[in-house]
Design goal:
The complex is a heterodimer of chains A (about 350) and B (about 350). Chain A is α/β, with parallel strands linked by helices. Helix content of chain A is about 45%, strand content about 10%. Chain A contains 15 helices and 8 strands. In chain A, strand 7 (about 250), helix 13 (about 255-270) and strand 8 (about 285) form a beta-alpha-beta unit. In chain A, helix 2 crosses helix 14 (about 290-295). In chain A, about 45% of the residues are buried. Chain B contains 7 helices and 20 strands. The relative contact order of chain B is 0.17. The chains are: A alpha/beta (about 350), B alpha/beta (about 350). The interface between A and B is medium-sized, with 14 and 12 residues.
Chain lengths: ~350, ~350
């Protein structure tokens, strides 16, 4: 296939890990499981420095953070990485991934920007940095190890009742490869990073007309309140296009996309009653780590699926995953948390 | 006399030049990498602007090279050449060497690899084809979709790999507009009920009778010309292609269902030509084709003494221009060999 031309080198071990601004809040199980998978299951060295900050990507895309500033912030992360002795960086946010790659490409084509950034960082912090040897998004790593995950699978992406593969919509964050196709597995038009996981875990990838369309986030659309209708209308367009295929699941690799495709389904349903899954249900939207965890047999409540707006019970039933609804809102030490009302799909 | 010329490339330019040189009395070796002579012409059906059968031109060229002074070598790739004194030594993949007093490069063009424009889905969706694929269907007189059904809505997308900075080709391939017009007419002739659309940036109809053909396509064959490029192609639940396009005259985006989309693949310097050029330090232009010594007076002359160019290895050319260019190359070679006496 075409995407075989777009392969990227993905280091095998020893990663400096950088966090997202939002995904720990909205989908905390994702990061937890990623670190668990890498460290405990696969035995890899993944280091996180508590001094790491936001990349300021949201501010940059909103025109409140100048380019020289964001370059210096990113350079500081590279300095932390150098100080800890790491050469490979694993970035968990697609916006940040786009920022890091844009800055690396800038430095390649405009070396004077690199020199200026070295100077700014040194003057501000006394730190020095090296350009990383290997830059990966965390979904690249799960892609790399997808067959190992498949071989440890307790459940596959197969409808237990019909024996048919589950129909999975994959949605790649725009800044993963649309800016620089060479940095993404499979390029920009037919990225293989998530479809590779779906195929490996037994599912069927849905190819629908608005497959590459934006999830509806887009910082300018969403952050300016007056533009939120535009954000929403893009999401409607996307979900309307996928609806005839009756997807069982949406799989994403970008924190913003996961959030918007999950929460806007609630909003659209409240506004006009529209739903986009089979039988009037909404479509669960999962991150690749959450899906990997389900495939490997982890308890859905331990990986935080109850925190999503669209609940995952229909998917769990199709995959044949047993779960106890009573455990859904229990704390780790067994205390009952408040149970939200009118949950979608549950 | 007794002088010899090696012609590399057995397409239109190479065949015409070899024939003319042989008639002038030179000993010619015509080397073709493929198993047959004729180059791209063998894949075309009718030629614009008069829809003459390409087989007629091919027959003329075959006749040109049926000459006792021509040694035809096919299935042999030239791996390089060097100049020693006033003589060239040409090496082939088979390990042979051929000596010559002059060298004519007629290495032609490669069609742009349309899968590089991934957003159009060539190689992914069965019914996204190239203009070359369509010519093969015309030749077989069998125009069908992958599932055997006759297409009812056919789109032509101009400028695939041409005038496109993203793929590194800022030049116009020049022939795709008129080819699309010709092919649109062919489709309407083969399938009279079909609706045919051409998506274009500009209609560049700068050749003899091109504009007339364009007018005929609109007036007689009802081909719809929509000014706007397709941004992406997908398939819908009915397995029909969906093309997103902006109609820049109407000022609105369109989403159009099509049974078949034909990509008008542009022309690029051939990979083999690039290898030869780089191996011998021959100059290439910004468009990667051979750079002639002078764009007005020396379009056949290379930067190495005794090396000449003919045809679409210098720029996109149509068949008529290619034949004229080959003839002018012969004039230059004859002048050169006479001066070297």
């Amino acid at each position: 296939m075409v995407w075989r031309d777009y392969q990227k080198e993905i280091a095998d071990d020893h990663f400096f890990y950088v966090r997202s601004c939002i995904r720990q809040s909205f989908f905390p199980g994702s990061e937890q499981f990623f670190l668990h998978l890498m460290r405990e299951v696969l035995g890899k060295d993944v280091y996180e420095n508590p001094s790491h900050t936001t990349c300021t990507g949201i501010g940059y895309h909103s025109d409140v953070v100048p380019f020289s500033t964001i370059q210096t912030v990113v350079a500081r992360h590279y300095a932390l990485m150098k100080e800890a002795g790491y050469k490979n960086i694993a970035i968990s946010c697609v916006t940040s991934f786009g920022i890091y790659t844009e800055i690396l490409e800038t430095w390649k084509h405009f070396p004077e920007e690199l020199e200026k950034t070295r100077e700014y960082l040194y003057k501000a912090t006394g730190r020095e940095f090296d350009v990383p040897e290997n830059v990966v998004h965390t979904s690249d790593l799960v892609y790399k190890f997808r067959d190992q995950i498949a071989s440890a699978a307790k459940f596959r992406l197969v409808n237990k009742l019909t024996g048919e593969p589950l129909r999975v919509v994959e949605h790649i964050g725009c800044h993963y490869a649309k800016i620089f196709p060479k940095y993404g597995i499979g390029g920009a038009e037919f990225p293989h990073v998530l479809s590779g996981m779906i195929e490996s875990w037994g599912g069927e990838v849905v190819d629908y007309p608005e497959r590459r369309h934006c999830c509806g986030f887009g910082f300018r659309q969403y952050l300016v309140q007056a533009n939120r209708g535009y954000s929403l209308s893009n999401t409607v367009k996307k979900f309307t296009s996928m609806k005839p295929y009756k997807p069982d699941l949406v799989l994403t690799n970008c924190p913003g996309c996961t959030m918007f495709m999950d929460k806007w389904q609630y909003t659209i349903r409240e506004m006009d009653g529209s739903t986009f899954g089979a039988d009037g249900e909404s479509i669960p939207v999962l991150t690749y780590e959450e899906l990997a965890a389900l495939v490997m047999g982890y308890n859905p409540w331990d990986i935080g699926l109850q925190i999503h707006m669209v609940q995952s019970e229909p998917l769990l039933r199709k995959m044949g995953i047993e779960f106890d609804p009573r455990d859904k809102y229990l704390t780790k030490d067994g205390r009952q948390m408040p149970i939200p009302k009118d949950l979608i799909n549950s | 006399m007794g002088k010899s010329v090696v012609v590399i490339g057995g397409g239109t330019a190479g065949m015409e030049a070899a024939g003319r040189l042989a008639h002038e009395g030179y000993s010619v070796t015509l080397i073709e990498k493929g198993e047959e002579f004729g180059g791209h012409l063998r894949d075309w059906y009718h030629l614009f602007p008069d829809r003459r059968s390409s087989d007629e031109v091919l027959a003329y060229l075959n006749n040109q090279v049926s000459h006792q002074n021509i040694r035809l070598l096919k299935g042999q790739r030239v791996t390089g050449f060097q100049r020693k004194g006033n003589e060239f030594i040409v090496s082939t993949g088979g390990g042979d060497t051929i000596n010559a007093d002059a060298l004519l490069l007629a290495t032609g063009f490669d069609l742009f690899k349309s899968q590089r424009k991934e957003e159009y889905g060539y190689g992914i969706y069965d019914n996204v084809i190239t203009s070359a694929d369509l010519e093969m269907m015309f030749r077989k007189k069998d125009l069908r979709l992958a599932n055997g059904i006759i297409p009812e809505r056919v789109g032509f997308l101009h400028c695939v790999g041409s005038r496109d900075e993203k793929v590194g080709n800022i030049y116009c391939s020049k022939l795709c507009c008129v080819t699309a017009v010709k092919q649109a007419i062919e489709v309407r002739k083969m399938i009279p009920s079909a609706k045919v659309f051409c998506f274009y940036m500009d209609m560049r109809m700068g050749g003899a009778l091109y504009e007339e053909l364009y007018k005929e396509a609109q007036e007689k064959y009802s081909v719809s010309f929509i000014r706007g490029k397709v941004s992406e192609v997908a398939v819908n639940i009915n397995d029909r292609l969906v093309a997103k396009v902006e109609d820049t005259l109407a000022g609105r985006p369109l989403k159009m269902e099509l049974d078949m989309l034909v990509l008008m693949a542009g022309m690029e310097m051939s990979e083999d030509g690039i290898k030869l050029a780089d191996g011998a330090k021959l100059k290439r232009g910004e468009n990667r084709f051979f750079q002639p010594a002078d764009h007005h007076f020396g379009t056949n002359i290379g930067n190495m003494k005794g090396v000449f160019y003919a045809g679409a290895c210098t720029a996109p050319l149509n068949i008529t221009e290619t034949i004229s260019h080959a003839r002018s190359a012969v004039t230059e070679i004859v002048n050169y060999l006479n001066s070297e006496k």
